[in-house]
Structures are given as C-alpha cells and as structure tokens.
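Write out this protein's structure.
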Amino acid sequence: MGSEIVMVDEFPFPSEVTASKPLHLLGHGITDIEIHFLQIKFTAIGIYLDSDVVNHLQSFKGTTGAELAEDDSFSDALIQAPVEKFFRIVVIKEIKGSQYGVQLESAVRDRLAAEDKYEEEEEEALEKLLEFFQGKFFKKNSVLTYHFPASSKTAEVGFITEGKEEAKTKVENGNVVEMLQTWYLGGSRAVSPTTMASLANGLADLISQ
C-alpha cells in the first residue's frame, strides 16, 4: 500500500504516509486561477486522513460526494473530527514564500475576525507563521506539509526544497490551527474546489461502506 503512487497533475503523491500511524490519501487537487482563458496552476495538494475519520461522519451516510462538497456542515464536522490529518502541498508555479504567507495570513485572519476570534494571541501565532515563510523561495517541486495531530490543537508546518534541509515550525493557537484546516478543508470556503470535490467523493465512498 505504501509504495503505491497517485499522480496529482504531473506530481507523484504516495497513497499513504506514516505520521503516528498510517494515513491514507483521501483527496487531492490543485490551486489555480484562469486569466484570459489561460489556466495558471499554483500547487498540487494531497489530503491524508486517519481512516477512523468515517466514525465521526456517520450522520452523512447516504449523501453523494457532490452534495458533501457543497455542505459546509460536512466540512465543519471533518475539521472538528479528532483524528490525525496531514496535508502535502507541492509547488507548481514558483512563488516567494512571503507571497504564500501573506495569502494564508489574510485568509486565516479574515475568517477569524468574521467569527470574532481574532485576538492578540491569534495575531502573534499568525505573525510567527508569516516569519517562517519569509525569506523562503517556493521553487517548483518544493513541498510544504501541515501535520495536525489527533491529540492536540496544534499544527506542525514543514517546508522542503532542493538542496536545503527541511525547515519546520509549530502553530500552537487552536483557533489559527482550525482556520488552517478550513483553508484546505472548508467546503465552499476551501482554497481548492478540486481538492474538496475529490475528498468529498472519497469520503462518501468510505462512509457508505
């Protein structure tokens, strides 16, 4: 199982990764925009989850993947599920780390502010994360990872690029951690609709078993 490869766009993703236990690739896609009918792809994304996640989603049994992808109550249940999650993001289009960091910070900050959860602690946690991305260059094939342990409201963020050792940082503010997950898993609010659609289809099949 661990040796199988899934191609996401042109990039190989293992079908399984091992964190504290084996996690399975249940959804994948890309981030992109269209400018004058030209598609520009930014990242390829793989979402790995503990298969126990289905135990927390049984109320959605019988719902199609297409319906789940549009249902924010499903994505909220997925984000709240106390299971290990791992996001693997591969850079397609080169970008400065600071540019990615600003996009991330803006999305997370706006969502926190909308829910009245943006206080000094959240601001400090976001600033630390933004500092982590400063000075890095996201070359093509660079890999960004987010690891969300089941047992704590934390996130371990890693970045690997050719010729350099892996850089890591930790996010320990629970509200920021939740919104990091929401950026990628947040249903209609997610940064990659293709990833959300793939994940919803994959989970719909698992829930129905």
